[in-house]
Amino acid sequence: MPQGVRRYDPDRRQRIIDAAIRVVGAKGIAGLSHRSAAAEADVPLGSTTYHFKTLDDLLVAALRQANEGFARAVAQAPVLADPDADLAGALARLLGEFLAADRGRVELEYELYLAALRRPALRPVAAEWCEAACRALTPRTDPVTARALVAAMDGISLQVLLTDSEYDEPYAREVLARVLRPARSGPIRPDPA
Question: What angle do the packed helices 123-137 and 55-66 form, to 10 degrees?
Answer without folding.
Answer: 20
